[in-house]
Structure formats: C-alpha cells, structure tokens
Amino acid sequence: MMPVMTARAALSANRGRRGEIVIHEVLRATLEELARVGYRALRIEDVAARAQVNKTTIYRRWPTKLDLLRETLRTLLHQDDPTPDTGSLRGDLIAFASRMVAFLGSPNGQVFIRLMMTEGADDDLRAVADSLRDEKEAIATRLVERGRARREIRDDVDVEILLSSLVGGLHHRILVMTPSPKKVDVESHVDLILLGAAPREKMPR
Amino acid sequence: MMPVMTARAALSANRGRRGEIVIHEVLRATLEELARVGYRALRIEDVAARAQVNKTTIYRRWPTKLDLLRETLRTLLHQDDPTPDTGSLRGDLIAFASRMVAFLGSPNGQVFIRLMMTEGADDDLRAVADSLRDEKEAIATRLVERGRARREIRDDVDVEILLSSLVGGLHHRILVMTPSPKKVDVESHVDLILLGAAPREKMPR
Question: What is the Rg, in whole angstroms, of the alpha carbon atoms belonging to chain A?
C-alpha cells in the first residue's frame, strides 16, 4: 500500500518541487546574464526569457534586481556550505582555502572575478559582495579562534592579519601573479602563515 | 663672472626645462582625465585642453593613448623610486610595504584603485598594470633574495608565497577588510610572515 498522503499534501509537495526548479532556473539564468552583460545592464525580462518563466514569477520572489543579484551570488559563492571541522587549524584552513582556490579557478569563479573587475565600483554589487565576504570571514575567524583555544597559535596573533595574509595572499597569487590556480600550493601558503603564528614551543620541523 | 654658456646651450637648457614642464602638465592632465572619465573614454584632445598644450605636442612624445597611460601610471606608481636598502630584510620589507600602503591611501592611489575596479578587465590597462607590477615584484624579489643570502629566511621559503602573503595580505586588508589604510599595521604584517619564514635558530621572542 502507498504511504498515506492527502491530495492537498501531494499538491503542495509538487508545488514545492516545482518552486525549487524555478528558483534554480532563474538563478542559473541570472548568472548567465551577468556573464553576458554584467550587473548594471542586467534586465529582469532577459532573465525571465532565458529561464522560461514569467517576469511576475521573478518579481514575486525577488522584488528588486539587487535581491536577485544577492541570491545568485550567495549560490555562486557556496555561501551555505558547511564550516570545515577537521580537528586541526591547519586542516581547517587548508579546507577553507582550497574551496576558495577551486572556486576562483572555476567557470563560475571567472564570471565573479570579471564582474568585480568591471563593475567593482558599483554600489549595489559592492554592498552584496562585502556582506557575503563578511559571512565567509566570520566563518574563518571562528576556525582561527577555535585553533587558538586549542593553543595552535599564539595569543598575540591578530586574526585579521593572519586571515588577510592567507586569503589576500592566495587572491594575489591567483588573480595577479599566477594565471593558473592549479599551480597554487594552498598548503604552503597555510604553512608559512601558521608557522609565523605558531607558539614557539610547538614550532614544527 | 657668469659661468660660460653658449647661446645654443642656454637655449637647449631652456628647451629642456620647458620640455619637463610640458611632460609634467600632460601627465597631470592625463591623471585628472583618468579620474574623471576612466581610460576607455579618455580623449587626447581633452588632455591637451586641460594641459594647455597642442594635441600634436602630445602625439609627438606619446604616439598612442596606451603610451600616455603607461607613462602616467609609471609616474603615479612612483615606479622609479630607489630600492629600499636598510641593511635588514625586515627593514626593507617594511619600507617597501609602507610605500605601497601610503600610495593606496593617497588621492592618486584612490584614482588608481577606482580605475582597476571599473576597467580592470580592459586589455590595455591590464597589460600596463601587469608590467608595472612585474617591475615592483622584481624589486621585492631582490630584497628577499638579499635577505636569504644574509640567512634571514630559510632556504626552503618560496619567495612568491612570501611576497604574495605580504602584498596580497596588505591589499586585502586595505581594499577589502579595513576602509582606512591608516589603521593597517605594516610591521605586524611583515613580522607574521617573516616569523613564518625565519630559520629556526633565529626565531625571535
């Protein structure tokens, strides 16, 4: 016998699934339009046509272009991925940084980089990028503080300096120095900085 | 008695000085136009009008808009400043990084940052910025290798990782994390990285 399900529940489950598909298609279409024309020139009607949905369907969920940008970038940047928890600060930072490097080297990452390089001065884009970055940074800060609580780094190490040296160093390496992110050795970046942050008595090698 | 100077030499010296003034005025006008309209929309006639010189005067020295961009950015980025030589790698890196931080916080630095944020994907702009960055990086690499020769860092430290962690870390701090470059403590950035790069037996503190 089939599990019991009322007609209304079945309808609502179907709607839920259909809703997810629509969200997925709209975000994918937005990303493609961002890649094609950027943010300033982005038009909701073009997104709707590409996603094969009604404009009103988009406006109902995302009242403004900025809302649509925000959710698209959230998805793009894997904003809801779980926080690394490997048991050591080194492992956590390598996991965190490896994801970032993989993203920057991916086609989606290239769209994002290009967007920031062409419209990085746009107020909306900047505000959304800043707030997503704040979220990521809060995660990374928690990793570092957890490591500090385990005495993996010294008490006097400034978490902002540590993280900017790691994140900024990898960005610089990938976006400025080395054209191929595949060549970037994440572990060596983490090790240089963690060695600089290590308690004297725990200094490796 | 006046020093001996032929009429021709005097004329030529005057011309030289007048030439320098023209160069200075044209580069200043180019920078102001870059700040106003960016690179793509830059017009030689607007630069000429602003510098109060003839268009042909500009074309004689800078045959293309790209040539004008290159020399303006060279001047802007203090490309010809002397290499730091304080006697220690720490001192040299602090001097090198402090200049960079001071530049990024200056009005000229702001023009440059804005230009890269709005037209960083432009091929010409990117090529010029890359080549100027290569020059700066070559200088920084020499500083690090000089320090390595003095045994201030380990043999196994990768100079690219060290420099990207310092330069990228400071960029990240200033352009992404902290709105005010004045609050960035250059010495702490240098110390974290140099501590990570130090020979074990020389580890400070």
Answer: 21
Chain-chain contact of A193 with B192 (C-beta, under 8 angstroms): yes
- Per residue in B173-189, pLDDT (tens digit) is 888 776 665 678 999 99
For residues B44-53, give the mean pLDDT: 96
**What are the C-alpha distances in Å from A190 to residues A176, B30, B91, B191?**
19, 42, 24, 16
Hey, CA dihedral for B20, B23, B27, B32, is it positive or negative? Answer: positive
- B168 contacts B142 by C-beta, under 8 angstroms: no
Task: Specify the DSSP element, H or E, that contains A177.
Answer: none
CB atoms within 10 A of CB A152: 18
Q: Do B196 and A192 touch (CB under 8 A)?
A: yes
Give, as one character, the DSSP assignment of residue B36. Answer: H
Q: What is the DSSP letter of B179?
A: S
Helices (H), B65-122: 65-76, 89-105, 107-119
Which residues, 6 or more positions from A137, have their beta carbon under 8 angstroms from its beta carbon? A163, B177
CA A68 to CA A53: how far, in whole Å? 14
The whole model's pTM is what?
0.84
Q: Which DSSP state fits A175?
A: I
Query: What does the pLDDT look like over A130-142, one tens digit per residue?
Result: 999 999 999 999 9
* B197 neighbors A196 (Cβ within 8 angstroms): yes
Residue type, A169: G
Q: Does B8 touch chain A (CB under 8 A)?
A: no
Largest Cα separation within chain A, whole Å, is 67
B205 and A200 in contact by Cβ < 8 A?
yes
Contact A195 B200 (CB under 8 A): no
Kindly list the residues from chain A whose CB atom is less than 8 angstroms away from the CB atom of residue B186.
none
Mean pLDDT, chain B, whole residue set:
88
Interface pTM, i.e. ipTM: 0.82
Cα–Cα distance, B157 to B27 (Å, whole number): 40
